[in-house]
Amino acid sequence: MSQLMENEVFKAFTTYAAIVTLKMILMGPVTVYFRFTRKSFINEEDVAWTSEEQKKKLLKTHPDVERARRSHYNDLENIIPFFFIGLLYALSGPDLSSALLHFRIFTAARIFHSFAYILVLPQPSRAVSYFLGMLVTFSMAYSLLSKVFFL
């Protein structure tokens, strides 16, 4: 493992993978924040302490909560593939400048995507950031397969 941590590309991947993973984890508390501030809960046990009348008011969906949930779900769909493809890409020996470009663009795209989703920025801002992140993952996969394709 110590030998791996001497590899600049692997260290860069580890850094950016940690950043996007932390961003993804933070989407949980963001969703909770919106649930409490918008008084929008989906599970009966979350409002068990209230009266029946209050339960009817609290057991509902809210657009802000749903946006946060969808943003979190979108992270799961994109960051997990980035993690696996990025790890294999980093281990395939790309040059540092190319790897940094891939990792930085993906990280920036995912952070911007979350802000665009939560703040309801006009399209195509969210779509562009989504496709940019996906393009980076496909680019790393193409580079990886070009180097190690074996049947």
Automatic annotation (TrEMBL):
Keyword annotations of the record: Acetylation, Endoplasmic reticulum, Membrane, Mitochondrion, Mitochondrion outer membrane, Transferase, Transmembrane, Transmembrane helix
Primary location class: endoplasmic reticulum
Keyword Transcription: no
InterPro entries: MAPEG-like_dom_sf (IPR023352), Membr-assoc_MAPEG (IPR001129), MGST1-like (IPR040162)
Subcellular location: Endoplasmic reticulum membrane; Mitochondrion outer membrane
Complexes and interactors: Homotrimer; The trimer binds only one molecule of glutathione.
Organism ancestry: Eukaryota, Metazoa, Chordata, Craniata, Vertebrata
Topology in membrane: Multi-pass membrane protein
EC number(s) given by UniProt: 2.5.1.18
SUPFAM superfamilies xref list: MAPEG domain-like
Annotated function: Conjugation of reduced glutathione to a wide number of exogenous and endogenous hydrophobic electrophiles.
Organism expressing this protein natively: Crenichthys baileyi (White River springfish)
A cellular-component GO term for this protein: mitochondrial outer membrane
Catalysed reactions listed for this entry: RX + glutathione = an S-substituted glutathione + a halide anion + H(+)
Gene3D superfamilies membership: Membrane associated eicosanoid/glutathione metabolism-like domain
TM ranges: 12-34, 76-93, 99-120, 127-145
EC top class, as a word: transferase
Family that this chain belongs to: Belongs to the MAPEG family.
One Gene Ontology term of the molecular function aspect: glutathione transferase activity
Protein name: Microsomal glutathione S-transferase 1
